[in-house]
Amino acid sequence: MMKMLPFFQSGPFGIRSGSEGCINANRPFENTSASEAEQVPASPEPSADEIWSREEKMREMPGAACRASRASSITSNESCISAGDSPEKGNKGIKGMLKSAFKIVKKTKPPSVKQVMDLLGEQKLCDAIQHLFVLEKSLSSKSEEGLNASQKDIESVYEVLKHKVFSTLKDSVLLAKTNPDLLQQAVEALKEQEKEDQNYMSENPPDQNMQFRPRKWKELWMVTVKESVEARMKDTSRTPRTENLSAVGQNLLHMGKTMREDLTVVAKYINKLYPPEFNVFSIYAELYHNYFASQAKKNAESHLEDKDIYLLLSWVHNFYPNDMRKDHDLAVELDKVKLGSLLPSSLSKELENKYLDSEEVTVKNSLSRCLDKEIQRWKEDKEPEKLNGHFQSELLGIFVIQSIYSSQQRAENISKAVGEELSRRLLKELPAFLRSYRDAFEDFREKSKKHRYYKPILIANINNCWNFREYTEKYMAEKDDSKADILSTLTDIENSGFDVLLQQLFAQLKPMFKRFTENKWDSSSEIMNEIIKTTSKHISDLKTLKDPFYHAIVEKIHTRLVKEYIVRLLKRKVSLKTAAQQQTLAQHISKNAADLEAFCTSNGSQATWLNSALPKLAEIIRLQDLGAIKIEVATLATTYPDIRKRHLEAFLHIKANLSRSELKSILGYLADSTASTQPKAPLFSNINVS
């Protein structure tokens, strides 16, 4: 008996081949009207639910699926075997079962239009479309007049069904989570209709097609999906309003958010409802992309505000290609589709140039305003603030660097290429700004000497240079021409400030150094102590400089002290004939050199290269052997390669016991030994010999 069950299901109202999806989407078709079988007393044969249960079990067995022929490929809304039409008790075996089956065929009537409408009212879309297929098949046995009348009824019902199916499909993204069963029914109805079209086309040559077949629901489905996509992309009310975002920016945000969320639903839920040949995700993705791209192009070709140009470029180069792929399932599907860019490359490049030009002008104007404000602060009768004991006017440096850096970062958020191009442009603006800054500083330095806080303002601006130095060293390549230009300008500002800060000190020291030669180095220790005391007072005022600049200015002081001492030795004011006199002078010089080195080192000088200059000169004065003198001269020339013959000749005037030939021999040795390269830090080259 069980082996024959598929046969009964292949009768006039049995399950059509290929309609399993619809059956799985719903429970077995229920009786929607009383049939003739209901007038017959119940028999002990199995009920419809029991037969359905058996069928489900058998379907899982290999080869047990229904194999109905194309001639009988229609579906009934009734159970496979009705209780009222069960085989008579007296007819046992296969022969009796066959007789009973043919009785069912004769007795069962096609479903009515009312039955189909009732199913539609109950949202049983799969059942309804199967009943309509039955009604369509039943028309082939009617007269021409009956055919026209019945076809109109069927088409009317089809319109109702089509409206329900496609209104459901239009809301696929919403229903995929809220009412997946209804969505699945609509998809199954679409699939069944497409199969019916294909079956009809395979059995009927094109010239014999009736006007109602093929119904082309798949084409209508594609139109419906497009309408759905466009409607959702246009409905900006679904995206909460973001404060300070323009209408263009809000629309871009809405479209991007909608596309990402909707395609995630398509990838996770909708895609699996359809067979592969529908290319569901690809169609949805391309429709969303095309709409987004059309709106982006429309925006790009219109007059946009600067902030909207930035937002649009950010979507084109960053948000769209990157944020869309944050969900793994969506990223996998998108990689298969290859949607491309939101804008054509030519239009994107045009927009990038507009952004870069605008940003460059914006930053330039911002820096100019910042410098104007800084100049106004210099004019105020107010001492600069201190930070960690150092005078600061750092708002300028901080603001300028932050303006450039933040602009670079914003551009890099669009794309690496845009960021690099803006960096190149802005790094050309920085040297121009610093030159303007230097000129303004020089103007203040020359015209504001009576300002109450003249020196603190100078120190604050010198300190300001450190921020620019750090930024330049960190973010600019060595090969960049702008880097050398920037560092040179900063050095000009620093040295200009140092000159003013040291001017008074050096003026006070000059007459003190003259006393060395005037007294012929008598009381040289007292003179050196006075020099150190005076210098110490000035150095204490310089500690409001930042450490790098403090060390730099102390090195300048150290250099100046050694240089001024050497100048006194080259003045030809002292000439000593005896070795004892020379020995005494050498001792004075050595003592002065040691005191000077100790003082400068204790105050932070790192100019250790200066420490051997005076001791070597003292040693030349002390030595009496010509060969030893030559060796010491050679050592001096190696350490300080900028020493020249004129310097040595003036210095050797102290050694009055040297013959002319000995002097010539020593000077000649210096000429042969002196390197032609300039020293890293000059000493003798800054000393003029009269």
UniProtKB/TrEMBL annotation:
Region of interest: Disordered: 27-49
GO biological process: exocyst localization; exocytosis
Coiled-coil regions, chain positions: none
Record Pfam families: Sec6 (PF06046)
GO cellular component: exocyst
InterPro entries, alphabetized: EXOC3/Sec6, EXOC3/Sec6_C
GO molecular function: SNARE binding
Highest taxon listed in the record's lineage: Eukaryota
Family: Belongs to the SEC6 family.
PANTHER family: EXOCYST COMPLEX COMPONENT SEC6-RELATED, TUMOR NECROSIS FACTOR ALPHA-INDUCED PROTEIN 2
Protein name according to UniProt: TNF alpha induced protein 2
